[in-house]
Design a protein that fits this description.
It is a single chain. Helices cover 17% and strands 41% of the residues. It has 198 residues and is an alpha+beta fold. The strands form two sheets. Strands 1, 2, 3, 4, 5, 6, 7, 8 and 9 form a nine-stranded mixed sheet that branches. Strands 10-11-12 form a three-stranded antiparallel sheet. The longest helix is centred in the last third of the chain and has 15 residues. The chain is globular.
C-alpha cells in the first residue's frame, strides 16, 4: 500500500486573536480565550524490510518537562524558524540528526492542543531509507520504530477515563511492547491512522 498517496496536502494555519501582540503572533495562538504556544512536530515515516514504520523518540529523563515520555521530534516555534514546518525540521535535526534534505514532506495532520497549552502542527514526512540516527542524548534516550500496521489495528487503541490524585482524566493510549504511548502523541497517531486507513 502506498501510504504517501493518502495524505491530504492542505496545511492548517495557526490563527491569532487580538489579545496577542503582533510581535508575538508567530509564537502564540488564542482559542476561546486560551493562549497556546505554537509548536510543531515531524511525523517521520521510514520504509524498512518490515514495512512502513513511524519513528518515535523516548524523551530523556533529565528534561525539565515531559521527561521519559514518548513523542515525535519537535518543539516550540523559535525566532529563527520561518514557519512551524521549519520548526519540525530543525527539531528533528537537533534531536535525532535528521537532515531536512533526508525528508520528503507528504502533508499535514490536524492541529492538536495539549493540556499544557501547546498547539502542535504535525508535519508528515517520508524519510530516506539510508537515514542513520545521530541521537542527542541530552534530549532523547532512544528511538522506537512503530510499525504502521500497529496503528491500523483499532484494537491497539484504548480510551482511558480514570482518576489520578482525585482528578479525572481522559486520554487515548497505545500500549506497544513495554511502551505506553498517550497524550498528544497518541492523538496524532490516531489521526495518522484515520488519514491512512479510513
Amino acid at each position: 500500500m502506498d501510504y504517501t498517496q493518502k495524505l491530504i496536502k492542505n496545511m492548517p494555519l495557526f490563527s491569532t486573536q487580538s489579545s496577542i501582540k503582533e510581535a508575538e503572533a508567530k509564537y502564540y495562538s488564542v482559542i476561546d480565550g486560551i493562549e497556546y504556544r505554537n509548536s510543531a512536530v515531524l511525523v517521520p515515516l521510514i520504509q524498512s524490510r518490515n514495512g512502513m514504520e513511524i519513528i518515535l523518540t523516548v524523551r530523556s529523563n533529565d528534561l525539565p518537562s515531559h521527561a521519559g515520555q514518548i513523542s515525535f521530534p519537535g518543539g516550540k516555534v523559535d525566532t529563527k524558524d520561518k514557519s512551524p514546518v521549519d520548526t519540525a525540521y530543525r527539531e528533528a535535526f537537533e534531536e535525532i540528526g535528521l537532515l531536512k534534505e533526508q525528508v520528503k514532506k507528504q502533508g499535514y495532520l490536524d492541529l492538536t492542543t495539549t493540556g499544557t497549552n501547546y498547539m502542535i502542527l504535525p508535519v508528515v514526512g517520508l524519510v530516506d531509507i539510508d537515514f542513520v540516527p545521530q541521537i542527542n542524548r541530552n534530549e532523547v534516550e532512544h528511538l522506537i520504530y512503530l510499525p504502521m500496521e500497529f496503528i491500523e489495528n483499532k484494537n491497539n487503541l484504548e480510551f482511558v477515563d480514570k482518576k489520578f490524585n482525585g482528578i479525572r482524566k481522559s486520554f487515548y493510549l497505545y500500549q506497544y511492547k513495554e511502551y505506553s504511548i498517550w497524550g498528544a502523541t497518541a492523538r496524532i497517531l490516531k489521526s495518522l491512522s484515520e488519514r491512512f486507513f479510513q
